[in-house]
Fold this protein.
Amino acid sequence: MDRAPGAISSLKRRLQDLLRKAPLDADGIARIAARQIYIMPTPTGVLYAVAAFAMLMGSLNYQNNLGLLFTFFLVAVGLVAMHHCWFNLLGLAVQVRPGPAVFAGTPAQFEVTLHNTRAGPRFDLRLAGGVDPGTPVCVNARDQQTVLLGVPTRRRGLLQLPAVELETRHPMHLFRAWCYAQTHAESLVYPRPAAAAPPPVQDQGQARRPAQRGGEGRDDYLGPREYRYGDSPHHLDWKALARERGLIVKQFGGEEGLDVWIDWARSGGGDPETRIGLLTRQLLDTARAQVRFGLRLPGRELTLDRGEAHLQRCLAALALFNPGGDRGQA
């Protein structure tokens, strides 16, 4: 039973590989050609055709010329609607860009830009296959429109978007025309952080750093401040705690103080994905504490640093890390 969803998704991917897709040009833009558009009647269109056929049979049976005229008029309207539905996608240019990295379980956002080089507007364009149905958009003549496509994420790593599906039901919702545009867009998916994790390894700083720098070292006393995650218990003001003033840390100048290492070797047991989730939680908690931290993985070490850019580098290293290999993938 558990293999059924995976088998169905695999079958869908194989069927999609057989479909004609609009290729990318040198600028990374896919332009929809005539032979890359598929069209089928909608349920409304099927009812429309059944009604027209019933009117045709009735008019022929009773030799009603007015009924035949009205039937042929309905058929002509249906054929014109089919042509305009197909023509609404013809020549449309599609460009896809990835959005920012997200954590596993959060939809990845891709920016899909629709370029209309035609002298007339295009109506009722929508993206298919996302997390939620997209709102139809209208692209004016010689204009462009950007639509966000949310793609579900389940695992860490690079999420590749091989193609986007674009559809329209303009003008009368009697037919559905759709096409596939190739993309090379891929979004980075960070590991899903664990709900809680044990404190990471703290380093007292054996590698000496430049002195006379205001921070959390152990030379000149600078004054008190509130406790932050990662602070050494040796710097706690126990007298202030006894006076019920809360956790207060004695701040010193000189060396920068404690360093925190997020270490794969000390992340505990369990399967690799569970350990990666624990390391992710430790990274987020340590970065929130605004202390210097580094990441140690088998075959790779990210040196001590702080800040949002360093956190993103560490999360990317965990997202691309291969526990089965000898070294992580960057």
Observations:
- Residues 262 and 295 are 5 Å apart (CA to CA).
- The longest strand covers residues 175-190.
- Residues 65-87 form the longest helix (23 residues).
